[in-house]
Specification:
With 349 residues, the first copy, chain A, is an alpha/beta fold. Chain A contains 13 helices and 11 strands. In chain A, the strands form 2 sheets. Chain A has a 7-stranded mixed sheet with strand order 1-7-6-5-4-2-3. Chain A has a 4-stranded antiparallel sheet with strand order 8-9-11-10. In chain A, helix 8 crosses helix 11 and helix 11 packs parallel to helix 13. Chain A is globular, with a radius of gyration of 21 Å.
Chain lengths: 349, 349, 349, 349
């Protein structure tokens, strides 16, 4: 399907579905299949997903990333336990309180400049252990890649995992963009998460070319105890599960996930590079995955948004976010960079 | 796509996706769209769905029927309020406690022989009103068509609505199979629910040919106050919403919903009729929608299930459930009836 | 303190505080004590309470009986698990949904004629085990004595415990009136509960002479894991705990609980006996503890209530409840019986 | 009652019960009273409490301060709404997550140096209003006096109330030590809270001489809609309510609350004054209510604690908290100051 309109930079959620994914859905659309994931096909694909994360891993499909994160936290915590996270973490600022409200998990936040946690930062919340008046930390949750476009090196994750396990914490990776991290690092999905010590992973698909589907992956099957019930009662059990499984089938085949994510990452780099030399555009954060943050003259933002949709990240700092997706094209990037240069490059001449 | 294997009678959730629905998904798969339902296309389709249920109605898409029901109840209730339902209601027996656990809504159950409620039955739970020790009824929830394959006549719904409103209750219709009811009654979706007085409807699509998508519809927009937040925090906000909207677009176009549901209903009637005269098969409930209940010799159940999957409904009574779907064919029915007749008809000769 | 007014028969919650209990409160009212139950005195009394229920038992004080029950259920259940109970159980009909709302525990009700459960009745709810769509039974909860004034014999409890443990259920005893049962049976508190196999007990004090205080007792300390947190986050941790402990100190001293409960039981028997021969008063249930149920001519209820407060139990059946308390006197009973006889005995002459 | 042992400085929760309070409990301990607060005496005292806070105010007794705060928040919030508070607020750091877990209310924290909020600080959390992904602020909650011993002037509260109401927020005062603030300011309870614009107040009694009892007070009765149910289902409804009411009866009589709180405040001032000139003790915060914060040489803390119990507030800063209670005596203070001077004053000579 051709589309004359260029794509914007608002969100990787604005992108469409990869053709292979639609094809995989169509390919399983025949006959009847047991509902609720009890069909052999879904079970085969769940096993293939799990295998990316280790020999003993177990994977469960859910509808969206919010659910993957909330269910990961809930699976790990008893009612008095909480999760340490960065103040900027998606679970803290973009889930309308679902971790607390649905899972009963209080978030123990830590300020972080670049969206990443370290053992040193997390240690601030290892406090008053054993005091019944205080929510007890049980999970350390990090985003890979982060909301600020940064990527944890495997060694950084290993340090976090060592810290977590020393304090009897579960390390959870919010991997709604795990594929972007793995592609950026040139490693496998497991190497970007469980092989480095993560215990639970929200493995994202929707932002990277699926129609809609995420997986919760437990490195250790003991953590998955009761998860089938938890998924069902939290309203995340799809009846026609084969159509979620089919999406992951396509996603794993020939590493579609890596091709898509690697492309999105490359587009972000291309955009950053294309803006070099424009004095009034300052790239504000390292570009490690599929997003570029920049500060602009405040009055320039709205005119740009009229041509290419994107979001202001921090109004006070006039910092904007330009997100690239699996379907962002080189010509999208070049056209956008051209507009920026026209509007902001001139006065620097 | 051809498929040599016949379809079973286990569940309408076992069926596939109607070709028009996949085509509609593909048709919107181009370019970028605002995420989370803020794109104009989703808003147009939401309005079209809402319009089926009245001029002032509002519709919201969610992932599955569990969520549609739980969110309907939660939207209507404050923390001390509950919902009157039949003991056999899906919300009571098949949601793993989600209404109570996620929405905090206690179910006030009433025994019902045929799955239907009446004002007389519901009145049993209008008790101790104003007593702070007791959950106060706030919702009357009925399934249309019911879990037992029965259909409320509009006049029956009107009586329930009058009763509900007299007692300051909201009338909710679990319409995961509303289309089967409307097709059976030969009326519109609204006539089978809101026009008869229902205030909130879970309007189902997944069981009747969609890939995955349901809608919560409020007849009165005042009941929808805050629902966007409620949907989000209950993990039911799809990011790529246009692909849910597209399914409903196809569903409403030329009343695909009615064609699909009417066909499923007809297949149930055909199955019932084909079994007339087999002494050892007793049809146990009126066939009004897309399901046939029957009792058989207990030892006959498993051999039949090996040829065509279906579920035992009541083990003690040797009562089975044969569910027809939008994609059940006449030859599926005839083949199944033939198998039944071969196994159970002989001895009656 | 003298009081010319007689006491009514509305509730044992209407009674006052035993003088020994007030004295015990005053006796510990000196100096400072560590708050939140960490003072040595509270710990000593907790141990004394626990010792009534077995060598390994652990006891925790809470504010009221609602909390004791809800926390008992919550301690035993994971989010997808529920509790089997009689339809008439206090937790089901008088807690405004707290088990579901606060603890997320769905109640799996069973009709019961006399308020008591049996393994046969409970077995109805051992259904669809392992099916993720269904709340899984985890607790069997019974009231000792029951809301209908009946008492479980130790052998009946043993049978329930054997059944429970066979199905991997925890047996919980709602013992808000455990003392009345133990006094009626002439056994210890443990013999009326944990020695017969109960795993968790809500041990009541308030209805039997305390100012306000209940205990949750776990026969096996493993079940108490994390309970300090659970108590705190469920808003049941008293700061000045020594004053709750003091009440239980008095309660255990010289078995005040048995003296009070035995007296209340005797008053119920006395009332029942005093009504023999009044044709228009029919005792409707066995009087085994501290309550008498009776049916009267409907028009006689209100005139009687004006002289002695009591509640109508079942309006349709004109069945009333006369509850005796630790402070009900023989002259209260005789005066009440006299009034009844005057109003209802005449016409039978 | 004489007690040779001096009182410590750990907590006002360590103190005993004022003799008038015990006397009031004994005074109502006769006859039967309707349970659950429906007796005329409780209703009279509730009205007296409410009247402290305005003509239209309504008051409800609960067991403890945790519950008063959590129920205040829950009464004001719908499931997607949250409460702005200081990071150091008791609700945030000392309730084991109850606001989130029991009430489903996310706390939107703001750093604050002295425990107090200002409109400027609170405004940071007025962000993304109307965005369904974000918990929407609905309550502004402040502690009067604060956890750090500071007191809001009425004008400061008025500014907060104006800010709150401008943003459609409810102003809640955690008044577990409201009496200390009112005594310090020389104003009435209302002037220290509702007259300055607070909409809901947790009015504390336990820390200031009661046995156990707090009240939730709504300045506007519309906010109390449904509160009886909310209190019941949150396990905070006392059965023998007259004994809670009696405590408040004594508390209001001749302003016992002011005498007790004023005395505690005076003891804190006396302690602060007694430490002037000891170089190694630095008073770290203004002493405005009943608590003194000080920093000491770290190695001096434990030896002091062996003589008089108190808590370390901030281990890293070697900052300690000395809390005075209604029953702290001048000789307690002088003895404690003497010990401190002996241990820490010498080296400064």
């Amino acid at each position: 399907m051709s589309d004359a309109r260029p794509r914007g930079f608002a969100s990787d959620n604005s992108a469409g579905v990869h053709a292979s994914v639609l094809a995989a859905i169509a390919a399983v659309n025949h006959g009847h299949a047991l509902a609720y994931g009890h069909d052999p096909y879904t079970q085969e694909i769940e096993a293939r997903v799990a295998a990316q994360f280790g020999d003993r891993a177990r994977a469960f499909f859910v509808f969206n990333g919010s659910a993957a994160n909330v269910l990961s936290l809930r699976a790990a915590c008893r009612p008095w336990q909480g999760a340490i996270c960065a103040e900027t973490a998606h679970v803290n600022v973009d889930e309308c309180g679902a971790p607390e409200s649905v899972a009963g998990v209080k978030l123990l936040t830590v300020p972080s400049a670049d969206g990443k946690l370290t053992p040193q930062l997390a240690e601030q919340r290892i406090d008053r252990i054993g005091d019944e008046h205080v929510v007890q930390p049980r999970v350390l949750t990090v985003s890979q890649s982060t909301e600020l476009g940064t990527v944890y090196q495997p060694a950084e994750l290993q340090a976090l995992a060592a810290f977590a396990h020393e304090h009897d914490l579960v390390l959870h990776v919010d991997g709604s963009r795990l594929t972007n991290a793995a592609a950026a690092l040139g490693v496998s999905l497991g190497e970007a998460s469980t092989a480095a010590g993560a215990d639970v992973v929200s493995f994202g698909g929707t932002k990277n070319g699926l129609l809609g589907g995420e997986a919760v992956v437990f490195a250790d099957p003991a953590l998955a105890d009761g998860f089938l019930y938890l998924r069902k009662l939290t309203l995340q059990l799809a009846s026609k599960m084969r159509f979620v499984a089919a999406q992951f089938d396509a996603y794993l085949t020939d590493e579609l996930w890596r091709r898509n994510a690697g492309h999105a990452n490359a587009m972000a780099t291309r955009l950053r590079d294309a803006l070099v030399g424009i004095d009034r555009v300052r790239i504000t954060r390292p570009v490690q995955a599929n997003v570029v943050f920049a500060s602009l003259p405040a009055e320039a933002i709205e005119p740009l948004q009229r041509e290419f949709p994107f979001y202001t990240w921090d109004e006070r700092a006039a910092e904007v976010r330009w997100m690239c997706a699996w379907d962002t094209t080189e010509s999208d990037v070049d056209a956008f960079a051209g507009v920026i240069r026209r509007q902001l490059g001139a006065s620097s001449a």
